[in-house]
Every structure is written in structure tokens, then in C-alpha cells.
Amino acid sequence: MLVWVAALHCEAKPVIDYYRLKKSRIDHPFDLYQGDQMLCVISGIGKTAVAAASAWVAALNREQASLAWINLGTAGSAHYAIGTALVINKITECDSNHSFYPVPLIETTLESAHCLTLNQASSEYQQKHLFDLEASAFFATATRFSSVELVQCIKVISDNPKQQTGRDKTRVSQLIAQNIEPLTRFAQSLQALNTLVKES
Prior knowledge:
With 200 residues, the chain is an alpha/beta fold. The chain has five helices and eleven strands. The chain is 31% helix and 30% strand.
């Protein structure tokens, strides 16, 4: 089972549309979309929300032999152009300065980057890393339920010093949709890795 976790519906919409995922009709604390061996949960913004949604999905699927995860969302950056999709290879929690290191086992054309997870949105863009509001809590939570190599983050740049589009929901969906081919190739490779883990 592959679980996509997004803070906002506009971030998840390209994946939901591509895979034709159907919204669950059962009353849930989070919006949940389902397909063949695939789920997408909309957590809401921030670390507490994404941790709660990830733990809830894991509990809901506790009978699964193995879960693979992708946190898909937007990020700010002083270095990258709007619309650039990046695989996160290091996540740093702003409060504790603790860092997490996703395992780069998936072959991809996407460039990798370091992401700093903040407590609130900021316009203080930095050259060395991206910033978001969820990645550290997502990674810390999902790795409690799955092997670390099966927990990945992909961020699409929505804001930089020259242009801020993160609050434009339609534009956010467009930016992620323009990366749907590398995103789905990455997802396919992660699903294949998950199969190997289940069979080992």
C-alpha cells in the first residue's frame, strides 16, 4: 500500500485526478481518497495535523504487511524556480535542530534538497534549503510504522523572493500537475521497493 500525505487538497488534487482516487464515503477525521493499493490523506497544515493524519492512516491500515509513504507538498526557496519538484534528502526540525535523513534508494530525475520544517510560514528565504511546515513531523511519525527507506518527501517550490503563489490554490495544483510524470514514476519505484520489503 502506498500512502500519499498532503496538507491541502490543492496539493493532492493532481495525484487524486491522475490515479482516479475516490473519496471515502465513511465519516473520517481526515479526507481520505482510495484506489487500488493506494491512499491519499489530506492532513491540514502544520506538524500536529500531519502527525495525527499519518498515525491515523497507519492505524487504519495496521493489517497491511508494509506501508510506503510520500509526503507531497509545496515549499519556499530562495534558490529554486517556482514549480521545481525536489526529493528531500535531509529534513531539519526548526525547534530542536534535529535532522532526519530519508534514504535515497529510488532512482529519479528529480534533484534532491534539504528541507527545514518551520512552525509557521516565513518570508525569510534561504539559499541553503527549502522550508515547509510538515516534513519533519511526517517523517518522524511515518517511520514509526514503516521501514525508513519507504518514507519519502517530495516538495514543489511555490514561493521564492520574487514570486509567492502558495496561497493560490489553483496555481498550486498546476505546479504539482506539471510534475506528475516524475512524481508517478517515483511512486511506481517506491511501490516496487515496498513489494520487495514485504516479500523479504
